[in-house]
């Protein structure tokens, strides 16, 4: 029996032309396709045909994350032929949601990716065994995160169980949803830009945008009010807490100040004791030493001579016979124990004698 040769399409060797579209007879190879394991495919066998890998998706707003996933799929095995299935608009809108790009735009974006050898239009949402056999697919490449859709927890579950699944890694930080979020977030900037570039208000649906913008502003205002209320409550609580601390510290400082003041200026304070000590020293310094505590007042001055005494007022005495007697009489005047009249009786004759 003659052995059939493989006539499967080979990977692209030139990038001057886009990838081909899959047709009903894109792989007309009649030779049997034996099932390969991942280990066998990594060794580069079979040598007479490429390893056919299938990767599917929506690929809306085709970006670097899509391209990196396809690059990983293309380089899983040494001799890989990459077929990319792209779901139609109807199927995508039914199971996932509205797309930005049309199906034809998405098909063309994939055709011009350097890692893609063939593009399958209107790809099925769930892969069946008949589909895999029809297109002679060896492995299915996709990220390993379970993809729940169409009532299934993971649409690739049966592929994984059959040993035909090879995982790729997602590119963090970029996705179609992220790009749409950026546009929606800054829609007013892009709307003004496109209006300046000649797009009409009808084309941009400006009336709807204005209505949405007004509602969005109202929602933002409500959110700001709630935020301000929360911040105000937090601020009041902090002020009350700090006020309590300040009042407590002020009371402690006041008590300390009053105590120090009383200790210094109180009835038995340090200041009074210092004042009394200094006052005593000052009085002691100003007081004359040896002066009599009490002296009788005198009403005459040495410059005026007293009038001669009347002979009827006092008895006349004989003058002293000598100056010693006069000095004795004067000394007797300084003694405080004698009577004032006796002193005057003794002193007046002496003064008269001295004048004569």
Question: What characteristics describe this protein?
Answer:
single chain, 48% helix, alpha/beta, 6 strands, 356 residues, elongated
Written overview of the protein:
- Helix content is 48%, strand content 8%.
- With 356 residues, the chain is α/β, with parallel strands linked by helices.
- The chain has a six-stranded parallel sheet.
- Helix 2 links the parallel strand 2 and strand 3.
- The radius of gyration is 63 Å and the shape is elongated.
If helices are DSSP runs of H or I spanning 4 or more residues, what is the number of helices?
A: 13
Strand content: 5-15%
Number of E strands:
6
The outline comes out as elongated
Q: Please mark out the parts with pLDDT under 50 across 5 or more consecutive residues, or reply none.
A: 299-306, 309-356
Note the run of SSEs as H and E. Answer: EHEHEHHEHEHEHHHHHHH
The main sheet comes to: 6 strands, parallel
Radius of gyration, Cα only, in angstroms? 63 Å
Strand-pairing-aware structural class: alpha/beta
């Amino acid at each position: 029996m003659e052995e059939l040769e493989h006539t499967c399409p080979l990977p692209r060797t030139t990038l001057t032309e886009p990838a081909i579209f899959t047709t009903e007879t894109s792989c007309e190879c009649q030779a049997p396709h034996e099932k390969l394991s991942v280990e066998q495919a990594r060794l580069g066998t079979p040598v007479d045909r490429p390893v056919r890998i299938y990767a599917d998706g929506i690929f809306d707003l085709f970006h670097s994350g899509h391209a990196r996933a396809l690059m990983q799929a293309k380089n899983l095995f040494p001799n890989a032929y990459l077929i990319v299935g792209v779901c139609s608009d109807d199927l995508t809108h039914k199971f996932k949601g509205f797309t930005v790009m049309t199906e034809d735009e998405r098909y063309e974006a994939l055709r011009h990716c350097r890692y893609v050898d063939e593009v399958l239009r209107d790809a099925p949402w769930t892969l069946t065994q008949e589909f895999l056999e029809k297109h002679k697919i060896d492995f299915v490449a996709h990220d390993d995160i379970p993809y729940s859709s169409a009532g299934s927890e993971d649409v690739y579950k049966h592929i994984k169980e059959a040993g035909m699944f090879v995982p790729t890694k997602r590119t963090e930080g970029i996705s179609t949803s992220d790009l749409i979020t950026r546009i929606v977030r800054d829609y007013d900037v892009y709307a003004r830009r496109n209006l300046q570039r000649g797009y009409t208000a009808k084309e941009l649906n400006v009336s709807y945008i204005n209505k949405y913008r007004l509602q969005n502003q109202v929602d933002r205002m409500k959110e700001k009010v709630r935020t301000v209320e929360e911040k105000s409550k937090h601020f009041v609580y902090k002020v009350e807490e700090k006020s309590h601390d300040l009042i407590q510290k002020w009371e402690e400082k006041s008590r300390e100040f009053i105590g120090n003041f009383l200790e210094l200026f109180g009835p038995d304070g340090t200041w009074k004791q210092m004042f009394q000590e200094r006052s005593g020293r000052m009085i002691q310094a100003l007081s004359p030493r040896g002066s009599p505590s009490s002296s009788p007042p005198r009403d005459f001055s040495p410059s005026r001579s007293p009038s001669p005494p009347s002979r009827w007022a006092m008895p006349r005495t004989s003058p002293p016979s000598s100056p010693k007697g006069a000095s004795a009489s004067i000394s007797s005047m300084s003694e405080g124990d004698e009577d004032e009249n006796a002193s005057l009786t003794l002193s007046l004759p002496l003064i008269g004698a001295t004048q004569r």
